[in-house]
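Q: My labmate handed me this sequence with no annotations at all. I'd like to see what the chain might look like in three dimensions before we decide whether it's worth expressing. Could you predict it?
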Amino acid sequence: MLAIKRLVFNDSVIMLEKLVFDYSIPKTLLVKLGGDWQISAGLLPVTEVTAQLTGHPDIAQINLSVSQELQWDSGLIAFLLKLIRECEQKDIHVNREGLPQGAQKLLGLALKVHEKNILPQETRVSFLEKTGEKVLQIYESLCSVLDFLGDITVSFGRVITGKAYFRWDDFMLIVQRCGVDTLLLVSLISLLVGMILAFVGSIQLKIFGAQIFVADIVGIAMVRVLAAVMTGIIVSGRIGASFAAEIGMMESNEEIDALKTLGVSPVEFLVVPRVLALVIMMPILTIYTDLMGILGGFIISVGMLRLNPIEYLNHTQVAVQLNHVWVGLIQSFIFGMIVAAAGCLRGIKCERNAAGVGMATTSAVVTGITGIVIATAIITFICQILGV
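A: Here is what I predict for the chain of 388 residues:
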């Protein structure tokens, strides 16, 4: 059975043909478009077609075709987009192969944008599935960190043998940023920490008349642990974040891809100078922090506790032994590697947009400080076992 209906709206013409085939084949509605389908001519309402679907509920597919005299612009795309959305609600497939190639491409792009704007439905995930996903994420992160550390080790070997792409001018500039540019902040923090230690310690030592042992508390605490930890945290927030931001912007601007295209290893050219500079400067900054912390304790002890300056310095010299100094320097060396590696890793793994650079910077600081705390606990435990 064949039924033909001609619908006219201004100059727009739709030929609706309902074809009935065997029951094993889905019912099909042929929609033939002709005439002027430009916005200036006005658009035919979609209800003219959906009325045919309502009158024939057995229709399962719509085939679209056009006549040779068809004139169209974005108005045709808007009409077809509305028709497809109506058919999706009725579970009717729309075959677009009969449309012009340009119309098919524009309609495909419009449908993709529509799919992106649809919010995904929330699905309930079991506790075991969430746990498994977290474990896999942790495993992938550990593998990524180990691969990155392996690349750094190989690159250091190439630097030693003189085969790496290493610019000494850039290295000296990074050393200056890690050292001289950080002195003011390190001086302020370490001086205040030394003063706070002396003041807090004196509160309890006054009870026993042993204020002179403030020198022991400040000297041992600063030289053994606090100087390295405080310097590591300051450097992580200042230098580690800058490393992540710089390399992250290079990743976003595809500069790292350009280095790879030229055959230059990004790890050799960007990461190794930063790691080496921070590893060299961290012990130097730690020694400077030791002195500033002891100076802060000296100011409080002499100015508020009325202790003899010479006696304070003698107590500090006796209390601070060489093994305390070595423990603090080893910690600072390890902290330098942690902060530099965290900043460079987050920068290289950065997403290529502004939000990704911000997230990489934040993640570098968090990773660096977390690594410092964990390393401090491990080193303290090892020193306790070894009796150092």
